[in-house]
Design brief:
1 helix, disordered C terminus, mainly beta, 4 strands, single chain, four-stranded antiparallel sheet
Amino acid sequence: MSITLSYYGGKPLDSVPEFVDGMEYNIQIIGFAVDTRAMAMLVKLPENVNFTGKIPHITFALSPGTPPAYSSTLLTNAKETKSIIPLDLTFKSISKRFLFEK
């Protein structure tokens, strides 16, 4: 199974987590938010992972036409309105970075 933990979307690489290829990480899902456009999971990254972005998350689902960046908006709004649905799930992930050229 593969889960994408970062979406580059043409942004500078300093806005995504710095995972070391081949290293094993424990990723904790601490909550999620859902609406008619998307479902996203809020994650707690390991302390040794440098992340300078807005909100670490996993995009689980998007409706047709919804841009990937909406996941951050959904989670930010849910945090502000205290409507994050709590979840406590930890999984092990082995990092592998794939970069695709346009």
